[in-house]
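thread: overnight batch results

M.L. [08:02]
morning all. the overnight job finished for the chain we discussed friday. pasting input first so we're all looking at the same thing
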Amino acid sequence: MKAVANAIVVAFMFISILAGCSNSVQPDASMLEVGIEELQGIQANEPFIITGYLKNNSKHSWEISHGAGMFTYEIVDAEGNPLKRKSGMLFRNNIGFLTQLKPDEVLHINGEEHRSEEYYTFVIDKPGQYKVRTNVEFRIENKQEINEQKLTSEFYEFSVELSNAAWNAK
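M.L. [08:03]
and the structure it wrote out:
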């Protein structure tokens, strides 16, 4: 009888140790980095593409689900005024993607084949200093839980120069 009681105590201790050591990590925004690839050589009145990224800075892989519009961008001038879009109607397929984001992996998806290029291609009329930031929306699927994520990068500063055509016309 004493041996059975000891076995039960040891089993409880073993289960308690295993439960305490379970490595169930919940995803959160601090494990991820949102940014923009460097913008160089931007000229006034010339189209340029902005590409945002999502980087997994954790030691864990995550199942990421998202739509074609995962990345959106905000551009402001030196005074902080938002740039107005000149495009008319924009289209986007409401398609869903499921991607595994591994540790230190970087995800760049502008949805080129599934939405209007005006979502990520821009034209700025006036030379000067501007700022842009990335907004990213996605879901992390982790052990039957879905964690909605809406993250925003810091503003990234870039310059728009006078275009070569305008410069030559002077």
